[in-house]
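Worked problem 6 (solution included).
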Amino acid sequence: MECAFTGHRNFDYYNEINNLRRAAESAIIYEDVNTFYNGMARGFDLAAAQTVAELKTKYKIKLIACVPFYGQRETLNSFDKKIYDEVLESCDEIIVLSQSYYPGCMYARNRYMVDNSDMVIAYYRGRRGGTQYTVKYAEEKGKKIIYI
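Solution. The predicted structure is:
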């Protein structure tokens, strides 16, 4: 089974990281997830990627980075660039979906992750934007969604 992550860039790390860890580990144990797709955006995505990287020391799982465009790293601040680089080193595969940024490339990345997954772990707090779009898309595709 394969699982994608989607979530807001404003992620309440200190209050939600344990919920994220439990959701990912439950997906591995109870849903037989062995591959996680991650969009590598700041906030929830990077926290989820770090979590999977940690879980790789305990479980035989894969982490696949789905980079929406070459140069995504350069849009991050120095703190997030460090996390991004560390996470990329622990990825089993890196998929870059576009040579350059274009309007809609983040949505294309999100659709790619959902289309290639059986389920989605979502950090969704009712705000409009990419996470809302991705959750709705996953619902339309009949994917199981775990909310944290």
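Discussion: The first strand starts at residue 2 and ends at 7.
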